[in-house]
Amino acid sequence: MEEQQVGSLHFHIDFSQPLYEQILDQARSAIAKGEIALGDKMPSVRELAQELRINPNTVMRAYQELERDGLTEKRRGQGTYVTSSPEHVASFRTALAARYIDSFMEQMESLGLAWEDIETYIRQKRDTEQGGSDL
Amino acid sequence: MSTNIVECHQITKHYGKKKALDQFEIAIPSGRITGILGPNGCGKSTFFRMLTGLVRPDAGHIEVLGKAPSWQTNQDIAYLPDRARWYPNHTARAALEWGNSFLPGFSMERAIQLTDYMDIDLDAKVGGMSRGQEARIMLILCLARDVQMIVLDEPFTGIDVISRETIVASLIDYLEESEQSVLISTHDIQEVEGLFDYTVMMKEGRAIWTGSTENLRAEYGSLRDVFRKMYMKEWNK
């Protein structure tokens, strides 16, 4: 799987997985991480479809979902921009983190682990990755 | 997405003893880029020729744009055959002018834009062109038309890498702007599988899998892998 750079965004597209979710997830995390700055212009649908060599309809659907997330906004005749509101990005990031934690917890619980065990594992993980910041 | 541009029910077609299509069933939704995939001899070309009425089924029922194929439905179909036929003395410009005078819905302005994009010299003779250049002009003759359906029979076969990339790029550009339905047959999906949002897999005259390409990926993985698995037998012969 090769990495492709489109403007300030990076994509890894794996053709053995649905493409729409990959584009959406990767664009979402680029915005949440600040890889593309608040208020910056997103690549056009055409540009992204060209670079990734995929159907423009697939890109368009992912862009519509980003807009519903509140992460981007369309400006008439000018294209799509990352929202200039840090609150929008922050609340999206919080929601996404909550979702990740839910699925993490679900998996841990499926191993029969209790909250204390999970805490211990996380602490161990942090200790082995020393030199890093506090989570 | 509500209507189908093509519907086939129980189509059978023989050439002598050989069955080209065998109780072939299919419904292709409009507004999509549909890939018709399968090895050589699986019935793709017979099916494509049937869309324009060049071949008639022995049995079964076919509808294109809601009607039986005829010269009337053909007005709304741009068809790229698997091999070009020209007047060899024509220049690229003359070939486009020919298109402009004969093909319904043709826009000369659009055709000229496309020659620029696809890097075609309008004054070059078509007789001396490479297969890749020929393929690009043939595609221009299709894309310059305002029609409901575009049918491309093996547009990527036997052409150089640059022509292939140019064709894929112009399809992406073009499709972003249009609501047209596109059918592309190919036995070689490398670098083009991202284009298809609907997929039909053919084998021995039948459609063995039909559906949204994203569902196919979720279920089986990349088209390339699916292709390899489904057609392994043919390739090992």
How do the strands and helices of this protein lay out in sequence?
The complex is a heterodimer of chains A (135) and B (237).
Chain A: E1 3-6, E2 9-12, H1 19-33, H2 45-52, H3 56-69, E3 72-75, E4 79-82, H4 86-110, H5 115-128
Antiparallel strand pairs in A: 1-2, 3-4
Chain B: E1 4-15, E2 18-29, E3 33-37, H1 44-51, E4 59-64, H2 71-74, E5 77-80, H3 92-102, H4 108-117, H5 131-143, E6 149-153, H6 161-177, E7 181-186, E8 198-203, E9 206-212, H7 213-220, H8 223-230, H9 232-236
Parallel strand pairs in B: 3-7, 3-8, 5-6, 6-7
Antiparallel strand pairs in B: 1-2, 1-4, 8-9
Helix pairs in contact in B: 4-5, 5-6
Number of helices of chain A: 5
CATH architecture descriptor of chain B? 3-Layer(aba) Sandwich
The interface involving the most residues is between:
A-B, 19 and 24 residues
Task: Assign a percent range to the helix content of chain A.
Answer: 55-70%
The helix/strand class of chain B is alpha/beta
Distance between the termini of chain B: 40 Å
Number of domains of chain A: 2
Low-confidence stretches of chain B: none
Number of helical regions of chain B? 9
Return the CATH topology of chain B. Answer: Rossmann fold
The biggest sheet of chain B, with number of strands, parallel, antiparallel or mixed sense and barrel status, is: 6 strands, mixed
The fraction of residues in strands of chain B falls at: 25-35%
Overall geometry of chain A comes to elongated
Strand line-up across the major sheet of chain A? 1-2
Q: Helices and strands of chain A: which structural class?
A: mainly alpha
Roughly what percent helix of chain B?
25-40%
- How many strands of chain A? 4
* CATH class type of the largest domain in chain A: Mainly Alpha
Encode the helix/strand succession of chain B as letters. Answer: EEEHEHEHHHEHEEEHHH
Protein name (chain A): GntR family transcriptional regulator
Organism (chain A): Paenibacillus dendrobii
GO molecular function (chain A): DNA binding; DNA-binding transcription factor activity
Domain HTH gntR-type (chain A): 17-85
